[in-house]
Every structure is written in structure tokens, then in C-alpha cells.
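Archive entry. Fields below.
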Amino acid sequence: TQLLEQSPQFLSIQEGENLTVYCNSSSVFSSLQWYRQEPGEGPVLLVTVVTGGEVKKLKRLTFQFGDARKDSSLHITAAQTGDTGLYLCAGLSRDSNYQLIWGAGTKLIIKP
Amino acid sequence: DTGVSQNPRHKITKRGQNVTFRCDPISEHNRLYWYRQTLGQGPEFLTYFQNEAQLEKSRLLSDRFSAERPKGSFSTLEIQRTEQGDSAMYLCASSLLAGGNTQYFGPGTRLTVL
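PREDICTED_STRUCTURE:
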């Protein structure tokens, strides 16, 4: 069974602080996607990473795909209250018949 | 707006009633997915279509659930004889067959079964 484990499950920090969220698996993924979801809404795609070791930046968000393509991280610099939400990672692999395998998410709260 | 749309956004029903949800994908996307999500969890895969063909259905999916995509465009998800355990957010997503299968989600339909 393929699993994607996200950590931490919950994170509450002050505005201006930095944070990192992790997404780990024992499986290899051909690509990995990060989504952010707000209450009562569907997930919104932030980024897709496909190459081992790849780093993508989206303003204050930095996404990294592990060299072995088994893990990924999301780093937020100088968090803002607007970053509050549920961050989900989802991986795609041949073993899953190219269906997305989802993590349970990290609930992030940024306090003013 | 050319994103994925879902209707209704909210549905409250009594146990035992049937409900139907609609999803309109991004127009050029040939793959369409249905997910269920409960509070504090990631989306749980239900089924997906490639054009009008339903290619996969979760083994966890009850026979009370059925989905259609008759013309390869919009899709409907029907739940018969609803139970309280069916209360969840039902999400639809679409993607292109090519392009890494990046999925784009609709806003979801929140179902509450009383």
C-alpha cells in the first residue's frame, strides 16, 4: 500500500516566522503536487514537481522534490495570515496506475 | 470562469433520500475524477472517467454510489438511500491525459445527511 505521510499534522505560528512542511513516502513518485485548501473549498494547485532534486519557488513558498523522488518539502518564509489553510501533497506513480496518492494534510494557522 | 464547477455547493438531505451532484470540468480535459473528503483528511478517490468511459472505481465505494459521464463532458454522481456516514465534501477534478496528469479541482459539494 502506498502512503504519503505529512508532518506536522497541525502547525500554529506567528506571522513573520518561517516554517517547513514535509511529505514522505517509501514509494517513488513520477511527480508530486502540492495543494492548498481553504475551509469549504476545493484544493487549489500550488506546484507540480517532477525531477529528483528539483526546487521550485512561488514567491515566499519554496518546494523541493527529494533526489530519490520519495519525499518533498514546502518551506514558507515570513509567513502571512493569508497562508492559513490545509496544505496537501499528492503523488503520482506507475504503481498506483497513475492515480494520485494523497497525504492527510498539514493544517497551518498563521496568527497575526 | 473556465475552471471546474460543481453544483450544488451545499446539500442537506434526510437519511434514505437520493441525491445527485453535477460536475462540469475544464472544457478540454478528458479525465474527470470524483473524490470524497472528510474533515481533517485528504481527498479519498471514488472513481474516474476518461472521456465517457468509467475506467476505475474504488473498491471502498458502496453500490449505492453511481457516476456517469454520458457525453464525455459533465458528470453526475448519485448517492442512493443516503446514510449519515455519507456526509462529506464531494470533490470533482479534471485533467488532461497528457501533461503529468495535474488535476484541477472544483469547489466541492458539501453533503449533510440528517
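CURATOR_NOTE: Chain B is about 0% helix and 50% strand.
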